[in-house]
Write a structure and sequence with these properties.
By secondary structure, the chain is α+β, with helices and mostly antiparallel strands. The protein has seven helices and 13 strands.
């Protein structure tokens, strides 16, 4: 079976990263037909950029539009994970859209066999700690709105960088946190602060954990303890500019910041 369509998209994304210039997605709009095609491109790009990075990856992004929709999962480059307070410096971004999120860290390893049967409650029981995270959304596609959903998925779900705040132990209080009442704010440069309450698309960011763990163990590999997943935006994707300071705050959890 030909994989030329996967190779073509992979090469376009790698060229965009090498040249630090987004590429036109139009010639490739029909190249990918299935989610598996996009995931194959993700794997090829990750292998080319970080051949020695551990498998399964340590850092992931996961999320979806609703509990009725598909949950998308993407392994991330270790080099794009920054500790708060972070400075982007000369890191190349084509665009700078902001998502403020909650990330979770696992306390033990999970085998593929266990992952296959993992319930929501068992997924929650894997959590060791949580933190505030900021994802800087970027795109290797010129005019991101012109790219198909599969091309965006292939491009690491339009991932640019991930900033992680200080970790908070997953205590009894966190187990019973009411996410529907969770307040968070984001301040971007000189823009007025934006406030959100209970706005996660899945109602509870922990919802992604079983889906993420099953995806991460697909190749019959055990997901190690200490693996980290960020879980989707609470604020949509407001735009930032080079030079902006971005600060995210989640009441009772913590904060994170990045200087772009």
């Amino acid at each position: 079976m030909s994989t030329s369509h996967i190779a073509a998209v992979t090469q376009a994304l790698l060229s965009a990263r090498t040249d630090q210039l987004p590429v036109d997605p139009t010639p490739l709009l029909a190249a990918l037909q299935h989610t598996q095609d996009a995931q194959a491109v993700q794997e090829q790009v990750l292998l080319a950029l970080a051949p020695n990075q551990r498998k399964p990856a340590r850092y992931w992004k996961s999320g979806g539009p609703s509990r009725q929709g598909d949950i998308a999962n993407t392994a991330l480059l270790d080099s794009g994970i920054w500790s708060s307070p972070a400075k982007a410096g000369a890191h190349p971004f084509n665009i700078r859209l902001i998502e403020i999120e909650i990330a979770f860290r696992t306390k033990r390893s999970v085998t593929p066999q266990e992952a296959a049967e993992l319930t929501q409650e068992q997924g929650h029981a894997l959590i060791d700690a949580l933190t505030v995270s900021i994802e800087v959304v970027d795109s290797r596609w010129d005019q991101i709105d012109n790219a198909s959903p599969l091309l965006k998925l292939a491009d690491m779900q339009s991932h640019g960088a991930l900033v992680l705040g200080d970790w908070l132990t997953y205590s009894e209080r966190e187990i019973h946190r009411d996410w529907s009442k969770q307040r968070c704010t984001v301040k971007i440069g000189n823009q007025a602060p934006l406030e959100f309450i209970g706005t996660h698309s899945l109602q509870d960011p922990r919802w992604v954990i079983p889906f993420w763990v099953r995806h991460a163990t697909t190749d019959n590999q055990t997901l190690p303890a200490g693996s980290i997943v960020t879980t989707g935006s609470w604020c949509g994707m407001p735009a930032a500019q080079a030079g902006d300071l971005v600060v995210a705050q989640f009441d009772g959890i913590g904060s994170a910041s990045v200087q772009l």
